[in-house]
Amino acid sequence: GVAASLLPARAGAARAAIALALLLVGALLVARGPAPPGADVTAPVSPDRSALADPASPRPNLVLVTIDTLRADHLTAYGYARDTAPQLAALAQRGVVFERAISAAPATLLATASLMTGLWPWSHADRGVAPPPGAPYLRRGFATLAERLADAGYDTAAFVANPALRAGEGFAQGFAHWDETAAMTETGAIDALLPRALAWIETAREPFFLWVHAMDPHHPYAAPALAPWEDPADARAAAIRAEWAALPVAQQTARMKDVERARDLDAATRAVLVDRYDAEIRHADAGVATLLAALAARGASEANAWIVVTADHGEEFLDHGRLLHGHTLFDELLHVPLLVLGPGVPAGVRVASQVPVIDVAATLLEAAGLGDPALDARSLAPHWSAGGAASRPAVASRDGKYVAFHEGGWKLVLAQAPYPAQTPRAGGVAGFRWMARAAFDTTHRPKVGFWPIAHEPRDPAVASGAHRTARRARDALEALRRAAPPRAVAFDPPLAPDAAAVEQLRALGYAR
Fold first, then answer.
1. 426 CB-near residues (< 8 Å, 6+ apart)
2. Average pLDDT of the segment spanning 453-482
3. What is the mean pLDDT of residues 294-323?
4. Tens digits of per-residue pLDDT, 388-436?
5. How many angstroms separate the most distant Cα atoms in the chain?
6. How far is CA 201 from the centre of its chain?
């Protein structure tokens, strides 16, 4: 947790002086930028307490729902032909839909760490400073959204179904009630967390911050019932479903990774996998509707509570020759849904401007009256206000090895030092054509390139003259990193490994 958050609200003068000193040290470290390798960094990034909400005024409840592995273009609200998420589509009519929200990473740990801290991904995954083996992923020195809200008097609770987001990885920081029971089930379906979340809602103290992370539609794609688009009379599809369902999770993962390496999957099997993935979305959609109905029964609706629904990342189905996620920075893995409802938020508005998902943190803090705590994130509110707001640049990272920069309708993907090919081997158009070709090499070579966001190609080619735009994009990325450098935060001591959790994560294909 954050050192300053341990101080009681009515600390004496001595403790207040200590807290102020810690804040100043943290501010100096942030201003100084990233620590060099081997540096002794001990001061945490502490929350800004200068603009706490007036305790005499009512503060809204805050609800954050993250749906694991949910790509935006498979949702009804985003124009998908199948009715995968009718409840979310109805929810979208009651609030604001962000048509282009970009996650900070194509994998859960980094994406969620950036979401919960409101910081660009390079603060959590920067290859200049390697974490010690076994250290928790989300360091205690970062001030999380839950910590800031708890420090301001919010009751905080989280119910997570992904074993990667367990307390041992640091994600329980700031939560008075933490429940990862659902993460210990084989599929982590939303059904496993709903009863416990609904029970907490009945007794929660207001104002509260509730985070629910549903595992569906992460693989294994095991929705309990067939969806309307799955024909029970189709014998070939039924046989494929039965074959995959009979495999243990680890074997399903291995088979999907084999497809990645061989880039070979018959059309019928791919169709069944997509059918099952979409069925999982529909199952998660029904679960979210149950959750929101319980909140409304408690009196927490968009009239007096803020509700945000988003995802950590997407999923690939041979869009670029592979299955699963985490391996590239293409949009099927980064473009996620983002729905926002709340007091004063207009209904039925669609925002075309691009936003990074990390902006959710600043938005919820602003809703709680906590002002600007010097995050990289910015409030989403200007986007639905009169006149709207311009697109924001978005940064995504793949494990700190590669960075994707979305701005001005273009995407630039670069390898980060000390990895090779940060600079093209040749200048001009030829150099960027080489970069684009490298994006589709083997898993051990850089996946870099430059292309229009609206036409992300399977076989990228850079048009004549585009290299000038790419250079401008790279200059803008470097300027952003200078303006918002990685935060200098010490790593936590390594923890003893949890053998059961490690085995479960390996079965699901997680590297840690």
1. 434
2. 72
3. 90
4. 889 999 999 988 888 899 998 888 888 765 444 334 444 444 444 444 4
5. 75
6. 24
Separation between Cα atoms, residue 166 and residue 137, nearest integer Å: 10
Q: What integer pLDDT is reported at residue 256 of this predicted model?
A: 81
CA dihedral 477, 48, 295, 213 (to 10 degrees): 40
Per the CB < 8 A criterion, the answer to whether 332 and 88 are in contact is no
Name the token pair of 459. Answer: 């076989």
Distance separating alpha carbons of residues 212 and 485, to the nearest angstrom: 30
pLDDT band at 437 (very low <50, low <70, confident <90, very high): very low
| pTM listed for this prediction | 0.83
Say how far residue 265 (Cα) sits from the centre of its chain: 28
Structure tokens at 64: 């954050």
Residue 376 pLDDT > 70, yes or no?
yes
Closest by CA to 324, choosing from 396, 271, 252, 275, is 252
Residue 47's pLDDT band, with cuts at 50, 70 and 90, is very low
Q: Do the beta carbons of residue 5 and residue 18 sit within 8 Å? A: no
Of the candidates 405, 388, 387, 385, the one whose C-alpha atom is nearest the C-alpha of residue 396 is: 405
CA distance 399 to 422: 15
User: What is the dihedral sign for C-alpha 339, 341, 347, 349?
Assistant: negative
pLDDT in tens, 166-181: 898 899 999 999 999 8
The answer to whether the beta carbons of residues 361 and 145 sit under 8 Å apart is: yes
Burial pattern 118-140, b for ≥16 Cβ within 10 A else e, equals bbbbbbbbbeebeeeeebbbbbb
Alpha-helical runs (H) found in 72-139:
86-93, 108-117
Give the CA count within 13 Å in the CB-facing half-sphere of 14.
0
Name the packing angle between helices 249-262 and 499-508 (round to 10°): 40
